Amino acid sequence: MSDSEAPTYPKLPRNTVNRYGKPRGKYDYESIHKIVNTVQVLHVSFPAPNSDPFPAMIPMLGFMASYSDQNAPLTEPLDLYLHGYISSRLMKLGSTSPSDEEEGLPLTIAATHLDGLVLALTPNHHSYNYRSAILHGYATPVTDADEKMWAMEKITNGVLDHRWENTRIPPTKTEMTSTQILKVNVVDASAKVRTGYPGDDRADLKNEELRAKTWIGVVPTFLKYGEPVASPENRVAKVPEHITSYVKKENEVGEKNALIAVKGE
Question: Whole-structure pTM over 0.90, yes or no?
């Protein structure tokens, strides 16, 4: 399937990528969902209570999936599930089910991967290689017990593969009560991706004196996981395979993605 045939989010004024929109803007489900599901922290913005003029923003854990079709690929429409403590500001605001006239609590969600420092001949052309996504949607509380448990498992395994089944489960009644899951119906989204080497002005590229003293190129950038450090309360002699394999895999994938971004592939 070509990019033009891939399922996409609607292109609206609020999610249209303007600067470098044609080469960098993406609206297809797969690109956006992949960015969200491979980033460790989402930043969620929501209307502040008590008529505060400034929107609130908090970092959160989340994951995109479909409870009604749990085998749905990234190319299909997916919901975004957010995990938080029941008494947090966002969870309080989103704790009530919407009326017939409401769709839920409006949210803006941001996800970003940094893939490289792009160093040019002039400060004006310095940049980053990156993959970012912005999503807009309406959040409602997950009230179905089975869906809530499923979402908690997905989000936990989004932190580290197979972590859910390698912990004490199921959660206690108190843990379930104190945890709130919001389900976001995403109505529009866009991604912006920058890859490649720096783009310098022709005049600067013809300046041999400048080029002789100024290094240009890309410093590949990626999240690297270190050696696991045991808690003082740990009683397991060897770090489990599900942790060591995850660390190895993610470090390899992160470095590979950063190098691919340098070449603009």
Answer: yes
